[in-house]
Automatic annotation (TrEMBL):
Lineage: Eukaryota, Viridiplantae, Streptophyta, Embryophyta, Tracheophyta
Gene Ontology MF terms: DNA binding; protein dimerization activity; zinc ion binding
Entry annotated with the keyword Metal-binding: yes
A Pfam match: DUF659
InterPro entries in UniProt: DUF659 (IPR007021), HATC_C_dom (IPR008906), RNaseH-like_sf (IPR012337), Znf_BED (IPR003656)
Protein name per the record: BED-type domain-containing protein
């Protein structure tokens, strides 16, 4: 049906604020709308239904879980009539239009004094709706501008403005995009001068553009402004001395506060291996718990990785430092030296597991999918299109026009994941892209007749779109599994087993015939076999009430063996083991509190560990055991971090004192980066052309000889200014894992697959 949808431009007659947050299509004689954030299509109900969807009005259909909070709050005000009442009052008033009655499109905020005069209605008056203070959190708070009251009085503010001075409690946030016509031009000039000074400084030292996205950037500006004119900058010795020392102490204190959580929920030691362009190898050691991830230290791995004994000693030291009774698992890659060290670690510490990184396993599945002939050809065809679009500024502007500012590239965890995520994005924008290449603007464009522009013809080729659709059917469930594994929103342990089940089930359902789907199953089985014999994943599935109560008895009997293995290893006390076994009966039969309506409803709404904490008091020993398992991650790659800290600099220094200083600097830098992880953190730019994304997007944006700059075709200055949603979409990939896990064959290892050599020996090597 998407092929029959015709994009419709937003006309001035569409006054409702919700129109700005959806795409409009014409289907026959009817209009249909698609949410910009979650991509849900509305085939009826008008703009009111879309508005209720975005505002989160329960009982009025599905609720968008990806809309930025400032947009949601504003549309809630619209529905409640608050904004309409403001407009009505101001129509009958001689005062200018209230800034609160306009939508905060850009999300930028500034703060003004409530006693501003000179023809400007004070936001402190009763005629203004003050936006929720929560809007000042996160990135919005970073962009908060503050001004003294006379900054608006004909631009006559003093150059030495005290921004953090008296009357700060009376400052009220208003959307800066709503009052641009009120702010005196001289105010904007001064701000531009400041921004130019910041730009010159950052460009001069070679800083990344993403430096302005740091959560510490705006507080730094505020602190400088609060010092007034003439505030001195820190010296080189200050930064290397007392400032670094204080930051190290701050971070060490934060880690000490985490140790109580490690004891209560258990924790995971994550081993991250980094290889520099010069062949230098470094191991980073982090600790995961549901509250936060912290960086402990890094070591030179040049000699460590060549010896399983040295690697074991290093891991053993980490376990002792964190506390062997706190550690549930140590997660690494699955190379042979990690397997050998992991086996010894489990022998010496019988209360923990060594686990290969699940994210790496799933990524390898996607990589092998991408090597299949027809899939590889489809990817290359799509890459030819994006390379052409993203190397010609005129074509890129035209594409943005037809996609409402959306990019067709979607960076992901790795190059392989990016390939399939981008194909999914291209499929979503199929009607937009086809509308572009059949438009008069494209036909009049000089590039449409050039040989290099012929790659765009694929956008009208149904064979190409059928191939893209099939690739998405096969890989989107694996991409979801990868997102679950790497999730910063919730611990993955209770969901990964189900996500892989759903991936194989989806492939089987779509292809139907065994000879068709077994090809892809073998690839999945080859890599997932590394996880098959790790009891934690199956135990996490068993202890997740959302999933457990949707399984049949046959599958439960398979899973219980993994639960028993975890009880014997993670619970050293025999008496507590016996109590847990007895308490399991109540859970399996949904007896007592587990069978109450509250607990039943909460299976789908609470995190698994939270559910056990709330309803597991009657089975206290089982509850504590379940929480320790369900509070863990499954990946040593906490996030797709860009701008990785150059830790190799530590070991290039030959001076022991300076080496320790650099080590402490990395300790501070890494933990500050980890603070910024999570939805809307701003740690990564959304611009796919940023060099920070080149590691995963190289094949999608790199120009070839046909894209050599000429006639201004690659002039970045001619690119249109587009507004990208700075709040990363929040997608709950566990929401629709579905019910019914009755195909026990999905996770059975088939003899014919083993005989064909499709399996690695990792698990046998570890558990024999």
């Amino acid at each position: 049906m998407d092929a029959e949808l015709e994009p419709v431009a937003l006309t001035p007659q569409k006054q409702d604020n919700a129109w700005k947050h959806c795409e409009i299509y014409k289907y026959g004689d009817r209009l249909q709308m698609r949410c910009l954030y979650c991509r849900k299509m509305f085939k009826g109900g008008g703009i009111t239904r879309v508005k209720e969807h975005l505002a989160g009005k329960k009982g009025q259909g599905t609720i968008c879980d990806q809309v930025p909070e400032d947009v949601r709050l504003f549309l809630q005000q619209c529905i409640d009539g608050t904004v309409r009442r403001q407009r009505k009052r101001h129509k009958s008033s001689s005062e200018p239009l209230s800034v609160a009655s306009l939508p905060p499109i850009e999300g930028d905020m500034m703060v003004v004094q409530p006693d501003v005069n000179d023809g400007f209605k004070s936001p402190g008056s009763s005629d203004v709706v003050v936006q929720n203070e929560s809007l000042l959190s996160g990135r919005t708070k970073q962009r908060t501008y503050r001004s003294k009251k006379n900054a608006f009085e004909n631009g006559s503010a003093s150059n030495n403005v005290d921004l953090i001075g008296r009357d700060m409690d009376n400052l009220i946030p208003v959307a800066i995009s709503s009052v641009k016509n009120i702010v005196h031009p001289s105010f904007r000039d001064r701000e531009n001068t400041i921004h130019m000074a910041i730009g010159r400084f950052l460009f001069g030292i070679g800083a990344d553009f993403d430096a302005v996205n740091s959560v510490n950037f705006q507080p730094m500006i505020d602190a400088i402004a609060s010092g007034g004119f003439g505030v001195s900058a820190p010296t080189h010795d200050d930064l290397r001395g007392w400032i670094l020392k204080n930051c190290v102490e701050e971070m060490a204190k934060e880690i000490d506060e985490c140790k109580a959580m490690w004891k209560r929920t258990g924790c995971s030691i994550l081993v991250e291996e980094l290889n520099s362009d010069k062949g230098f190898k470094v191991l980073n050691f982090l600790v995961y718990c549901p509250e936060k991830v912290v960086f402990l230290k890094s070591v030179d791995a040049s000699e460590v990785l060549s010896s399983a004994d040295k690697l074991f000693e290093l891991l053993s030291e980490l376990v002792e430092e964190v506390g062997s009774t706190n550690v549930v698992q140590v997660i690494t890659k699955c190379d042979d030296y990690y397997v050998d060290a992991g086996k010894r670690l489990m022998l010496v510490y019988p209360s923990l597991y060594w686990v290969p990184c699940a994210a790496h396993c799933i990524d390898q599945m996607l990589e092998e999918f991408g090597k299949l002939g027809w899939i590889s050809e489809t990817i290359e065809q799509a890459q030819a299109i994006t390379r052409f679009v993203y190397n010609h500024s005129g074509v890129l502007n035209l594409m943005w026009k037809f996609t409402s500012g959306n990019d067709i590239l979607l960076p992901a965890f790795s190059s392989s994941a990016t390939n399939f995520a981008t194909l999914g994005r291209i499929a979503e924008l199929k009607s937009n892209l086809q509308a572009m290449v059949t438009s008069a603007e494209w036909n009049e464009c000089s590039y449409s007749e050039e040989p290099s522009g012929l790659v765009m013809n694929a956008l009208t080729d149904e064979a190409f779109w059928k191939a893209v659709a099939l690739v998405n059917h096969l890989t989107s469930p694996l991409l979801r599994a990868l997102r679950i594994v790497c999730s910063e929103k919730r611990p993955a342990m209770g969901y990964v087993y189900a996500a892989l089940y759903r991936a194989k089930d989806a492939i089987k359902t779509h292809l139907v015939n065994r000879e068709d789907y077994i090809i892809y199953w073998k690839i999945i089985d080859r890599w997932w076999e590394q996880q098959q014999h790790i009891p934690l994943l199956a135990a996490g599935f068993f202890l997740n009430p959302k999933l457990f109560y949707n399984t049949n008895e046959e599958m439960r009997s398979e899973l219980i063996l993994s639960v028993l293995d975890c009880i014997e290893r993670l619970v050293p006390d025999d008496k507590i083991q016996d109590k847990i076994i007895k308490e399991l009966t109540s859970y399996k039969t949904a007896g007592g509190v587990f069978g109450r309506n509250l607990a039943i409803r909460a299976r789908d709404t609470m995190l698994p560990a939270e559910w056990w904490s709330t309803y597991g008091e009657s089975c206290l020993n089982l509850s504590r055991f379940a929480i320790r398992i369900l509070s863990q991650t499954c990946s040593s790659s906490v996030s797709c971090r860009r701008n990785q800290i150059p830790v190799e600099h530590i070991y290039q220094s030959k001076n022991s004192i300076e080496q320790k200083r650099l080590s402490d600097l990395v300790f501070v830098q890494y933990n500050m980066r980890l603070r910024q992880l999570g939805p809307g953190s701003g740690d990564d730019t959304l611009d796919p052309l940023s060099h920070n994304r080149i590691d995963v997007l190289k094949e999608w944006v790199s120009g070839d000889q046909a894209c050599v700059e000429g006639n201004g075709s690659a002039d970045w200055k001619s690119l249109e200014s587009i507004h990208r949603n700075q709040v990363a979409p929040i997608i709950d990939d566990t929401e629709d894992l579905g019910s019914g896990f009755d195909d026990i064959e999905i996770f059975k290892v088939e003899k014919e697959v083993r005989d064909e050599g499709y399996y690695t020996n990792t698990s046998e090597k570890l558990f024999t």
